[in-house]
Amino acid sequence: MNERVKPFHECPHCNKKLTTEARLEKHSCEQKKRFDFLNTLKGKSTFYCYRNWMIAQGRNIKDKDVFMNSKYFNAFVEFGKFCSRVGIPDRKHYIEYMVSRAILPAQWVDPEVYETYISHFDNSKTPLEMASITVDTLYDLSEIFECTLGEVFEHMTSADIMRLVTARKLSPWVLLFSKGFMNHIRADTTAEQRILINTVINHGYWSNKFKEDPDSVQAIKRIVSELKI
Fold first, then answer.
1. What's the pLDDT score for residue 1?
2. Any bridge partners for residue 18, and if so which?
């Protein structure tokens, strides 16, 4: 008499065979964790960064299955966390700079590497590009706070402002012409807080920058006025 073969349930990610469907549902291999992660918003953002890295190198774009098994997978996950933590203003721009410097993904989160990028960002972006990033940031914040662009600063702490300026998400090209920002600084901050903010927005330095580029100053003043920032 032939012995009856017990059915099994196979994990589609690692091919491990399990005896019951319940055990398959509880099963959690590394490949399954990666698959589930890539279906989240953070996972999709991580894959977007990987695609941009491939494009910047002139290489064929790989699909998610290839990325899931890539030796760079964990490096891109860490890069995603790093972007959220420090607030990188333009991830695509950051990646293109890393490729131009032949810096591998595992090194992208290094503080010294980040500092070199910030210096490059300041030298490569025009005042209007910096203003555009700032306006996008203010729109995002206005939706979160459910207020107008000019009221955004009323909902922010000095630490929030300093962090976003340091991350180049907010630029003095806009802030120093914004009535909302300047009123907030004068009315809602202490002398100590104003000193701290001045460490990331040096008024003397920016005054000289504005004198060097009067055309950009006029263009940005018009933007600030039209948007009532």
1. 47
2. 9
Tell me the average confidence (pLDDT) per consecutive run of 10 residues in the chain, 229 residues long.
Answer: 60 70 73 90 95 94 88 96 88 95 97 92 93 96 94 92 92 96 91 90 92 97 96
pLDDT score of 46: 96
> In whole angstroms, what is the distance from residue 83 CA to residue 219 CA?
30
* Whether 129 contacts 118, CB under 8 Å: no
Angle at 69 between CA 65 and CA 72, to 5 degrees: 120
Cα(42)–Cα(23) distance, integer angstroms: 27
- What is the reported pLDDT for 3? 54
Burial (CB count within 10 angstroms: exposed 0-12, middle 13-18, buried 19+), residue 77 = middle
Q: In 10 A of CB 220, how many CB atoms?
A: 24
Using DSSP's 3-state secondary structure scheme, residue 10 falls into strand
Alpha carbon distance, N-terminus to C-terminus of the chain: 84
- The DSSP bridge pattern shows strands 9-10 and 17-18 to be antiparallel
Separation of alpha carbons 36 and 33, rounded Å: 5
Which residue, 72, 65, 64, 66, is CA-closest to 99? 72
- Residue 18's φ and ψ, nearest 5 degrees, are -120, 150
Helices of type H across the chain: 21-26, 30-38, 41-56, 64-68, 73-86, 91-100, 111-124, 127-145, 158-166, 172-175, 179-188, 191-198, 203-212, 214-227
Is the pTM of the predicted complex or chain greater than 0.70? yes
